[in-house]
Amino acid sequence: MNRVHHKYSAAKKVRSSDAYTFNAFVQQSVASGSTIYADGLKSFTRFEQVGFRHVPHIQPPVKRPSRRLESVVPLADRSIGNLQQWLIGTYHGVSREQLQVYLDEFVFRHSRRQTPMAAFQTLLGLGAARRPVPYMQIRGGSDRPISPGKA
Questions:
Q1: Rounded Cα–Cα distance for residues 39 and 14 (Å)
Q2: Residue 38 and residue 25: Cα distance in Å, rounded?
Q3: Of 64, 88, 105, 114, which is the most buried if we count CB atoms within 10 A?
Q4: SS (H, E, C) the chain
Q5: What angle, rounded to 10 degrees, do the helices at 99-111 and 74-86 form?
Q6: Is the pLDDT of residue 6 over 80?
Q7: pLDDT tens digits for 96-118?
Q8: HEC string of 69-93?
Q9: What CA–CA distance (Å, rounded) separates 16 from 107?
Q10: Considering only CA atoms, which of 88, 119, 116, 112 is closest in space to residue 102?
Q11: How many Cβ atoms sit within 10 Å of the Cβ of residue 26?
Q12: Neighbour tally for 103: CB within 10 Å
């Protein structure tokens, strides 16, 4: 079986893990007609209804708890593990309100990991073409109080 390994990633904070939410995300993030390799989560069973081919890989039950099985979706597991370690190691955790901003940054870095100069050029171009953004607009979250007079 020929597999095309992903070149880019996408991540989004979602409120629900139902089929409707996943279908909307996939339609927005994946090229129409693509094949999606995922685990056997029941919410993934309706990808065909929105124009994608879904190849489920179901993890077999562990017969001996001391024996660790190989992952059925190793690239996804590696990306999720990298995201977790990056969030914990770099930022020591993030708030729910700010999670999407950090997911966007991770995807940006992850998708350009083979060409670090491209990431710098993209950031340089964005910085040159945009007006300054006020701190309060960047911060946006309400989980930490801001001292009076500091912005």
A1: 18
A2: 14
A3: 105
A4: CCCCCCCCCCCCCCCCCCHHHHHHHHHHHCCCCCEEEEECCHHHCCHHHHCCEEEEECCCCCCCCCCCCCCCCHHHHHHHHHHHHHHHHHHCCCCCCCHHHHHHHHHHHHHCCCCHHHHHHHHHHHHHHCCCCCHHHHHCCCCCCCCCCCC
A5: 120
A6: no
A7: 888 999 999 898 888 777 776 77
A8: CCCCCHHHHHHHHHHHHHHHHHHCC
A9: 21
A10: 88
A11: 21
A12: 18
CA distance 120 to 18: 37
Work out the end-to-end distance of the chain between its first and last CA atoms, rounded to an integer number of angstroms. Answer: 56
Tokens of 53: 């081919």
Q: State both tokens at 107.
A: 């995807």
Q: What is the pTM of this model?
A: 0.63
**Pair 93, 87: CB distance under 8 Å:** yes
How many Cβ atoms sit within 10 Å of the Cβ of residue 117? 8
